[in-house]
């Protein structure tokens, strides 16, 4: 099932891709960034761009019927890996406690000029209620 959130811009061309998808108890959120009609939200400030990207991810996670605690994996794409500290500060504003698995990838460019960070997420709804023995 395709999922959307009122506070997250829809893909520029309908039918090209979904912002989020739910299949059973699993969900996936496409790469979210801070792109806007007048350029990136936050301008050149990578921390502010990351905050907006994470805000959009969380809005879609919640639209999938999940919480940030249900997110099992994040993938973060940066045009400059040196910005990982600023992005980490932004992530800490939205994700606390047991953190999801995370991959950080350096890329040469993102989809729109001026974008510095993009974040994807996936998870399983209801994972916080499951009891797992640590290994």
Automatic annotation (TrEMBL):
Q: Which InterPro entries match?
A: RutC-like_sf (IPR035959), YjgF/YER057c/UK114 (IPR006175)
Question: Gene3D superfamilies, from UniProt?
Answer: RutC-like
Pfam families from the UniProt entry? Ribonuc_L-PSP
Identification of the protein by name: RidA family protein
Task: Write down the species.
Answer: Janibacter terrae
